[in-house]
Amino acid sequence: MRSSHGGGVTDSHVILDQPGAEKLIGKGDGLFRPSWANGPIRVQSAFVTEDEVAAVVAHCKAELAAWYGAIDDSLVDLLGRATELIVVTQWGSTSMIQRKHGVGLAEAGRLMDLLQGYGIVGPSKGAETRDVLLQPTQLETAIARVRGAGL
C-alpha cells in the first residue's frame, strides 16, 4: 500500500477511505481493516517473492506425486475394494476396513489417507467416521481412478 510516488495519503484514501498507508515501511508491512475494527490495523508479515511462492508450490507438487507413486500393485486391489466398500455403504471408517478386509490398523489408516488423497473421503475427525465425498453413482469412476494408481 505504500506509494512509491509520494502519494501515500492519497492511496490510503482511495483504498481505505482514510489515511494510514503513508506510515508503512513496505516489505511485509501492511494495513488490514477487519469488519469489527473502527479503522485499519497495522500488520507485519513475512515478505515472500513470486519466485519463492513458485518454488514452494513446485516442491509440494513433487512431494505429492512421490506420495501417490508409492502405491505398489499389491495395494491397488485392496484400495479398489476399500473404495467400493466405503462408497456403497457411505461409511468412512478405518475399523470397518480392518474388519472387512482383514488388515491391521496401520494399513487401514494408510488406505484411508490414500482415499482422502483421491477425494473419496474427507479428513480425519478423530474417533468419528470420515465424511464420504462420493455417491454410489460415482463408484465406477472412483474405482477406475484408484486402480490406475499402480500404473
TrEMBL record:
SUPFAM superfamilies per UniProt: Winged helix' DNA-binding domain
Domain of life: Bacteria
Matching InterPro entries: FtsK/SpoIIIE/SftA, Ftsk_gamma, P-loop_NTPase, WH-like_DNA-bd_sf, WH_DNA-bd_sf
Domain FtsK gamma: 72-137
Signal peptide: none
Alphabetical list of Pfam families matching this protein: FtsK_gamma
UniProt-recorded name of the protein: FtsK gamma domain-containing protein
Organism: Streptomyces siderophoricus
